Amino acid sequence: MPTTFTLFKYPHGGRPLIGPVRRGVMYGGAALALLATVLAFPVGAVLWLVPVVARLSAARYLQIGPRYLLCGDTIVYFGNVQRMVLARSEGRLSLYGADKGKPLVIERSKFPTNARKPDKIAKNKDTKFEKVSARIIQGVLKAAPGTPLEEA
After folding, report:
1. Could you give the residue ranges of the DSSP H alpha helices within the chain?
2. Domain enclosing residue 43, as ranges
3. How far is CA 112 from the centre of its chain?
4. pTM of the model
5. Domain-located, residue 6
6. Is residue 102 part of a domain?
7. Are residues 26 and 82 in the same domain?
8. Beta bridge partners of 68
9. For 69, how many CA atoms within 13 A lie in the half-sphere containing its CB?
């Protein structure tokens, strides 16, 4: 049975998640554009926009699984997390791994929202951050029960 991940839109700066349908549109569009460019240059050159737009419009996600967290190019195994720091006032969850390197930081301000009013934007971002951080903390504590959670 394949592992299912819960996806949350989160512009992390790494590579976007490109699924099989989007990948098919990109490759099919590139092949069609190449063929059209050879046969009819001006029209074919415009068709190159299809794979480019498909690639650039791919969303970035925070993927939370039962034992892993994927954030762009970063993979965090919940069992390897040594310490968690949750700063609710700053809207920041930091996960410190066993490698003693740079921590993975999840920030409330990065979560997108469709709201237009400032109070609703803040409320939606706060709700999403609380949901995501609770799920991550629950996953870490399930995989490594002795992991300390510090509230800052």
Report:
1. 20-39, 41-47, 49-56, 118-143
2. 18-56
3. 11
4. 0.79
5. no
6. yes
7. no
8. 77
9. 27
Residue 8, in any domain of the structure:
no
Q: What is the CA radius of gyration of the chain?
A: 20
- Establish how many alpha carbons lie within 13 A of residue 45's alpha carbon, considering only the half-sphere containing its beta carbon: 2
At 112, list the tokens: 């997108």
Domain count for the chain: 2
- Residue at 86 is within a domain: yes
Distances (CA, A) of 96 to 18, 92, 103, 120, 129: 28, 13, 5, 31, 18
For the cut 70, the answer to whether the pLDDT of residue 1 exceeds it is: no
Tell whether 52 and 24 lie within a shared domain: yes
The DSSP annotation for 61-102 comes to EEEE-SSEEEETTEEEEGGGEEEEEEETTTTEEEEEETT-SP
The C-alpha atoms of residue 108 and residue 54 are separated, in whole angstroms, by: 28
pLDDT tens digits, 85-101:
999 999 999 999 887 77
